[in-house]
Automatic annotation (TrEMBL):
Gene3D superfamilies: Crystallins. Residues 111-129 have a biased composition (Polar residues). Residues 105-129 are annotated as: Disordered. It comes from Nonomuraea mesophila. This is Peptidase inhibitor family I36.
């Protein structure tokens, strides 16, 4: 009995060690992503995440969840789990160079795009259309 418990704990420790993410963090992120538009700090949906359900004129005072790092000029990948077109803009109040995310689309690398400009670490405001 005791051995089984220890073995279970060891397995859990290995799993956590491999992913580097606790199950509760993963659950919270999955819940936030559902039906929302999400930005990620790094390519491949890694690093901090930030999910939103409406337009925001400035991301300067928005932070990657659980951090004090601003979302502004930091997004490197995105998932659009909404039915809206979402336009990212380089400047506040929906101006400057933009990136258009179609409903239900995702992009694991905002640097290389077809039909959109290279857009790594640029998003400063975002607009639901
Ligand atoms: Ca980034
Ligand atoms: Ca910007
Ligand atoms: Ca891309």
């Amino acid at each position: 009995m005791k051995k089984a418990v220890i073995r279970t704990l060891l397995v859990m420790g290995v799993v956590t060690g491999v992913s580097g993410i606790s199950p509760s963090y993963a659950d919270a992120r999955a819940a936030a992503e559902a039906g929302s538009f999400c930005l990620y700090e790094h390519d491949d949906y890694k690093g901090g995440y930030f999910c939103i359900n409406g337009s925001d004129v400035s991301l300067r005072k928005n932070y990657w969840v659980g951090t004090s790092r601003s979302v502004n000029n930091g997004a490197s990948s995105m998932k659009n789990n909404t039915g809206y077109i979402v336009m990212l803009h380089d400047l506040e109040y929906f101006v400057g160079q933009y990136y258009l995310a179609k409903p239900g689309s995702s992009d694991k690398d905002l640097t290389n795009n077809s039909g959109n400009p290279s857009y790594d670490n640029k998003a400063t405001s975002l607009e639901f259309r």
